[in-house]
Amino acid sequence: MAMAEEEQKPLAYVPEIVLKKRKHKEESIALTRKNQLELGARAEKKRRVHDIKRPEHFVKEYRDRELDLIRMKQRTKRPKTTRSAVPKSKLLFVVRIQGKNDMHPKVRKILYKLKLSKVFDGAFMRASEGVLEMLKRVEPYITYGYPSVKTVTDLIYKKGHGKKDNQRVALIDNNIIEQALGEYGILCLEDLVHEITTIGPHFKEINSFLGPFSLNKPKDGLQGKKALFKDGGDSGNREDKINDLISKMN
Which family does it belong to (predicted)? Predict the structure, then answer.
C-alpha cells in the first residue's frame, strides 16, 4: 500500500500563460490548415475552368495546324539552289527548339522520326540529302549546325544514353557499350566519340543505339522566333555557332 502511494506522483504544474500559448498555437495551426485547404480547393476549381477549351480555341488550333502544313509544303517547293546549300560538314547536331499545339501531325511525325519528340531534344545526324530534306520540312521548330569534337565529347560523356532491353541507360560503363556495339569494334566511350566525329562505317548502328540527348533550356541564346538564324531568328542552320548554343544547354 505504501509502495502504491509512493508510485503515484502529482501532476506537473503548468502555468496558465503556457496553456494559453499552447491553445493559441493550436488554433493558429488549425486556421492556417483551413485556409490552405480553401485556397487549394479554389485553385483546383480555377484550374478545371481554365482547362475547359472554348470552341474558338479548337478552331484556332486547327487553323494553326493547317497553316503549318501549307508552310511546310511551300518550303519543300522552293528551288533546290535556294533551299539548302551544300553543308560544310557531314556531321550535324540537331536540336528541337519549338513546337506544341500549333504543329500539323505530319510535321510532328517527321520530328519523331528524327528522334526529336520533345522540345530541347537533340540528335546527331549524317547530312544526307534525305535528312536535309526532312530538316527543311520542320525548319521552324529546329536548329542545327556542325558540332566540334569537343562538343561531341561533352555530349557523349555528360548526356549520353543508350538503349538496352528497351530501357534507357546512362553511358557510365564501357561494358554497356561493348555489349551493344562490340561486334563493330566499338568498345568504349572514346571509340563512340571517334566513330561519330569521323562519320565512321558504323555511324548508323551507333545512332540507333544512342537515345536523344535531353538538353536544358538555355538561359539566353534563344529568342522564341521561328525566323531563320541568319535572319535574326532561332531556327535553321547555325553552322559552327551551334557549339555556342549547346554549351549553354549541356
Answer: Belongs to the universal ribosomal protein uL30 family.
| DSSP H helices in 91-219 | 105-113, 129-137, 149-159, 174-181, 189-197, 203-209
Greatest distance between any 2 Cα atoms in the chain:
110
- Cα 94 vs. chain centroid, distance in angstroms? 13
Sign of the four-CA dihedral 29, 33, 39, 42? negative
Q: For 20-64, what is each residue's pLDDT tens digit? A: 777 777 777 777 877 777 777 777 766 665 555 666 655 556 565
Q: Which of 88, 164, 96, 87 is CA-nearest to residue 132?
A: 87
Coarse DSSP helix, strand, coil percentages of the chain, rounded to the nearest 5 percent: 55, 15, 30
CB-count burial class (<10 Å; 0-12, 13-18, 19+) for 122 = buried
